[in-house]
Design goal:
Number of strands: 2
Strand content: under 5%
Length: 90
Amino acid sequence: MEMEHPKWQQKYEALLLEVDPQKLAVLVEEVETAMFYRYQELSFSSDGHDERHALAEAATSLLVVEKEILGFPGLEFINHDGARGASEPE
């Protein structure tokens, strides 16, 4: 992923490379927080379509990490059409 949005992407890329579950859990929280604040910043702008798309893709990846690697309970995916499911989107 190209580093166009380093405030959250640097943390996200570190998360993707982490193998220690304890460190991974901390990084998940840091990435979610950084992404949340960036979403808030973008909400006041008509620009940022590409970054919003990148954030959405990263959020989906975070759900996979949380569910499949860290075993967080009760997570489900919401498809682009708004349908909920218990498995990863295709």
